[in-house]
Model the fold of this input.
Amino acid sequence: MQRDSGFTLLETLVALAIFAVVAAALQLGIAGAWRGAKIAEGQDFAIVTAQRLMAEIGVSRAVIIGRTTGEIDARTTYAIMAQPIAGGGYWVDVTVRWSDRSRGQSRDVTLRTMKVGGRS
Done:
């Protein structure tokens, strides 16, 4: 009995099943990496914005005791909380919140520092 060269139907189906599993795993990995990159991009923007706002406080932006809020754009807001410290200076918290379109939820970044002196 002579065997023809080539693959049997069973071998072809097994190879196709292995390919489908590997392709699905790759697709999930790529989608996860893309989501992570988008989150990191939003977080980077929020950190830079919070640092800029923090640098302005007491210099070009007056220190206002209590909570001050504002909007950067349609998806991004900020809140500045300033509390006086005995002996002079202020604790300042800057929170930048943005909406993550891909997941439909809000994320935020908060920076805290002590400001001494400054324009009030």
